[in-house]
Amino acid sequence: MDALAELVESLPAGVVVTDGDRIEKYRWDRSQDPHAGTPLAVVRAEDAGQVQTAVRWAARHDLPVVPRGAGTGLSGGASAVDGGLVLTLERMTAIEVDPVCQVAVVEPGALNKDVKAAAAKHGLWYPPDPSSYEICSIGGNVATNAGGLCCVKYGVTTDYVLGLDVVLADGTLVTLGGTRIKDVAGLSLLKLFVGSEGTLGVVTRAIMRLVPAQVVGATLVAALPTMTAAAEAVVAIRRSLRPSMLELMDQPSIRAVEAHRPMGLDTSAGALLVAQSDAPGSACTAEVEAMSAACRAAGAGEVFVTTDADEGELFVQARRMVIPAVEVLGELMLEDVGVPVPRLPELVDAVARIAERHDLLIPVVAHAGDGNTHPLIVVPRGDDAAKLRALAAFEEIMHAAIALDGTITGEHGVGRTKKSALPAQLGEDVMALTRRVKDALDPQGILNPGAVL
Amino acid sequence: MDALAELVESLPAGVVVTDGDRIEKYRWDRSQDPHAGTPLAVVRAEDAGQVQTAVRWAARHDLPVVPRGAGTGLSGGASAVDGGLVLTLERMTAIEVDPVCQVAVVEPGALNKDVKAAAAKHGLWYPPDPSSYEICSIGGNVATNAGGLCCVKYGVTTDYVLGLDVVLADGTLVTLGGTRIKDVAGLSLLKLFVGSEGTLGVVTRAIMRLVPAQVVGATLVAALPTMTAAAEAVVAIRRSLRPSMLELMDQPSIRAVEAHRPMGLDTSAGALLVAQSDAPGSACTAEVEAMSAACRAAGAGEVFVTTDADEGELFVQARRMVIPAVEVLGELMLEDVGVPVPRLPELVDAVARIAERHDLLIPVVAHAGDGNTHPLIVVPRGDDAAKLRALAAFEEIMHAAIALDGTITGEHGVGRTKKSALPAQLGEDVMALTRRVKDALDPQGILNPGAVL
């Protein structure tokens, strides 16, 4: 019996997909990595046992396994590998909320928004909110240690992971952590798997911490003359306040959104800062007033404040709409570089210079409160020369971030599209250390080969 | 030249201590581990270069290195090993606060309280606050992923570690993370070193995140009839509120404190709950009122609330005084077990049964909001029989926690005194995985051998 037949036989009908047409959509994530391979088969696992079966099979035959959530990754972390398996967790979507323990026990294919909704039924909240929260899965969030808009106050995915079930490279299922909040027994293996992008194991269950729901009390929108001025406002705000959102759009982003769906944004502004406060009661007013003052001190003309939740949400939607709005202008290469917050203006300047040098449009949106920016490199469709210039710009932006004490990826992950720059950020010794950990956990190198390392 | 002479020669005068009397105090941490060995020498490092020199020397001669901070550890994580080095970081105490980046760049020997003080000068705050914060070092805090009283709202040490310099087992110095807030480039090696208790590397510098200072607005003290009732109040409070402190003392603890320093605590109460709110403005009043209501619903007689900061601090001091007060009654064996919050009453019951069975006094204090308890096993001085019973109780309490889905250590670490129970908590497969990571990073096994594993 050949290897593939053995796999098909060892799993229930319908779990292993080998049909070429059906396989096609599992080759790429949203980064549309041109180097994505063609897998031998896709395993659409229904439970942890099937994940173990698939991984054991791959180990036996020394074949690559690419784990996959909702396929919304932006760095090619889920690009298929020629002749290997794609192991999709999309069918494992169970969510169980324990309101007394304040945790959600979640299968990896469950969508972020569904975890939020399940928690909300109990007056609880799962904070991490990638911009793609309506379509991305918790498994993918764990794999990339995903961030989002609320991170500035509430932290990133790893801060909410209390427990993980992980299938290791040899098919062993381990349970790490649990429903207890504090636990320092043994090495922090739990945290090691968060952000490991499928290179160390396959998460089959996650226990996520929930917190009491917070109410956004006010939204502030400030028009600043320049991105530098806006970044100054951000630094000033962070110094004494803890806003629940602190986002930035540059002029090209504002204009793209306004062109895509007119809502009266100030298209003459150099930058738009969108901030929210969920401080309770009267403290909210005080926080927003202090933010307004910081914006004015940084040179803001108009500062608009609303306590109407729906109106506030419109501006947040404007911020979330930047990517689809810019996508209208061409294909996007989505950057994710970050720097220490005070160095934001330098990063923005560097991106502008790179854009000019390569004759490219590169709007910038930012989770500014965390120093995490998304330069959006626009490639006019069908313009192959621009595509090449964009690839060069993509690399240069990562190196500009590194030169500013920054990171090549704040929340999307390294995947395959950013790995060329990883050694420049981490250095030889940390790369060697990374390799040692990888080799210890996956000696055959079958888990997501080609990603990260 | 013999090995020791080679070490002495390779480091500046005064760094290597070999004198028997002076070595003595470096043999133990606060757990007074009776199995602590006698080191060949103590290296009192002044900088990372000297740490590298010492570790390289140890690697060359295949000798154990026990890293050590302030020696306030409670699990024997810094017990000396016969014939090895103790590598103390107590002389590396520099603290540099960058108020714009909102980080403290700290050498490992700096005390927690000094980091707090340095941050406070800039209106900033370093939250983690182990009860020993006045005498414990940041290096030790990182090594154990230390917790404290504010964790219930503000998290533990790992949540504040943005960067680490670590000397690896072969003497290589690696820099992980930095001053950027969000960074997912590469594996989460940074988090792996936090809580590794000196078994994977020696931290020589830490970059700790700071946040704007918060003001405690009100303190609540509630007398509950039983620990079970108090635990119910805790669960109810956590459901909708985020107090900045949520601590519990049982009756023996209350009585010990009152006997030690009378302050009018209700010694007839079954449990005393001490909570604080740092919600801003009027929200503080609302939060405290809701906590009061939850306590009353759980059967509280008296509920005392004060907005006077000094008065509030008195009650927090009463809580912090439990350990010294109970220490008057005998030698202490300090437990650190945790459970999912709703299982607190079961854990408290289990501890009471163990105390009764072994005819021991075991007062319990708890970071109740996190489900983390400190049963304080009292051994009357000079009573060898009681000492044996206490050792048995110590083990049984850990296994009781495991049986309740809990942990043998919430914040003190496994060290040497708790490692016998670690396999029962983690299971064979996770122990094997731990061993693989340890072997990959420290193939000779020279870093803190005998701790954790």
Automatic annotation (TrEMBL), chains A, B:
Residue stretches making up the FAD-binding PCMH-type domain: 35-213
Protein name in UniProt: FAD-binding oxidoreductase
Keyword Cell cycle among UniProt keywords: no
PANTHER family associated with the record: GLYCOLATE OXIDASE SUBUNIT GLCD
Family of this protein: Belongs to the FAD-binding oxidoreductase/transferase type 4 family.
Superkingdom: Bacteria
Keyword RNA-binding among UniProt keywords: no
A GO term for molecular function: FAD binding
Cofactor annotation: FAD
Cited Pfam families: FAD-oxidase_C (PF02913), FAD_binding_4 (PF01565)
Species assigned in the record: Nocardioides alpinus
Entry keyword set: FAD, Flavoprotein, Oxidoreductase
